[in-house]
Amino acid sequence: MLITSVTEGVKIILHETEVFCEVKSVVRNEFFAAYGVGLTPKLTININPDDYNKCIMEIGNQRYRPSQIRYDGELYTIIRTFQKNIGEMEITVR
After folding, report:
1. What is d(CA 76, CA 42) in angstroms, rounded to the nearest whole number?
2. Contacts of range 65-73, beta carbons closer than 8 Å, 24 or more positions apart
3. What letter does residue 29 receive in the DSSP assignment?
4. pTM of the model
5. What is the pLDDT of residue 26?
6. What are the pLDDT digits (tens) for 33-92?
7. CA distances, 63 to each of 28, 56, 59 (Å)
8. What's the number of domains the chain is made of?
């Protein structure tokens, strides 16, 4: 589930969108690079870039991108996105 947070005045509205994904563990070199700057990546999640782009919300001139992922009952924060190719996007979460 991709989650996009949108601020409306003093309220924060969460928009959740269910997407198909493939979950992998974080590779060693990426883990240590992130750990060196104070981040602790937990998972790498691969999704279709079209699914990610459908979750981007534009309100006025403000653009909101997904900032969290709910997977297997746990809530994760997105720390990096990388489009590997035309049909695959890699999202690293903590």
Report:
1. 8
2. 65/4, 66/2, 66/3, 66/4, 66/17, 67/3, 67/4, 67/5, 68/2, 68/3, 68/5, 69/1, 69/2, 69/3, 69/45, 69/93, 70/1, 70/3, 70/16, 71/1, 71/21, 71/23, 71/43, 71/45
3. H
4. 0.82
5. 75
6. 666 666 678 889 999 999 999 999 998 888 999 999 999 999 999 998 999 899 999 999
7. 33, 7, 6
8. 1
Residues 6+ apart with CB under 8 A from 63: 56, 57
State the residue for tokens 């060196």. Answer: 36
- Locate 47 and state its tokens: 């999704």
Domain carrying residue 51: 2-93
